[in-house]
Batch of 2 targets.
Target 1
Amino acid sequence: MSRPEELAKALSVVRERMSQACRSASRDPEDVHLVVVTKFFPASDVRLLAELGVTDVGENRHQEAQGKAAECANLRLRWHFIGGLQSNKAAAVARYADVVESVDRIKLVAPLARGAQERGSDLDVLVQVSLDPPGADQRAGCPPEQVVELGAAVQAAPGLRLAGLMAVAPLGEDPGQAFARLALVRAGFLERFPEATTLSAGMSGDLEAAVTHGATHVRVGSAVLGPRPPIK
């Protein structure tokens, strides 16, 4: 099977999973969007995905993302930065990303705003919520009790648009329980920021649970692209 055929088949399976999850949750499939996570895969795969109708791609390493976005600049794609973000690289990320999903502390707001203003277009920002129990050191994220404060800082920054929330289910926990907690955090967040309706949650192994609990975007890598190639 050729690479285009592999990707087309895998995309079809993932899209059907998403549609079935929406039907089970009595949701409109048009309300849930696919972000294909292309980290460690070549720009040639990104081009094939674009030809297959993918509009949103995700990356989590700045250097790789920057190069790939430049190489694919002629494609109509929205680039999502989803990885841990260092404050000294935030401005550079904002110059090529359309969405930054991993904003978990106020220190990132000013450099992201600076980069967005230098680029000359608004940057969509998602506040990353930690779903880990207190004291856990497994995933990044803003503590749930601090998301409104962080959201207000993003909303007030020039060049940034507060789009919503992002989260990753903790390792070893039932994702349904984790995303149920996320739904409660989101409900409170929307009371304060009613236009911040994006909820990015769910990956290859747990997208159904995320859709059940309100995800508007799912981030899928291996289920579309296959096992990751060795890191170079």
Target 2
Amino acid sequence: MIIEFEDTLITGNDTIDGQHRELIDRIAQFVRCCEQGESKVKAIKMLDYLDEYTNYHFTAEEKLQEEVSYPELPQHRTKHEEFKKTISSLYDYLDENEGPTEEFTELVKKNVVSWLMNHIKAFDRSVAEYINLVENPDRL
């Protein structure tokens, strides 16, 4: 699985796209760490960063939505909360095991990578389009 920011993930909002690039880069590093069987400590540190950056990104994204009165904000927040629970379950997995296993790596790919890519393409693109319409009402 190739984990990189690609054109299909561009939302058209520079702030969101920049944060997505950083997030995807960090996730790719995390997956490589897991695939290489790095230590539990290193995996936890990388998960810590991913957790912190995800929270930063979600907060910024939700703030943008609040500023433009995005009507789907409650649903978007719910999706973000789902992702936070996924991150929490990854911590639980690492707590219960000696380190990242193949099973753990597959969980990360499925529940983090796939989730994020789908979320960006659907939910975040919709937000960016709405922001663009609000900021450019004369285009209607």
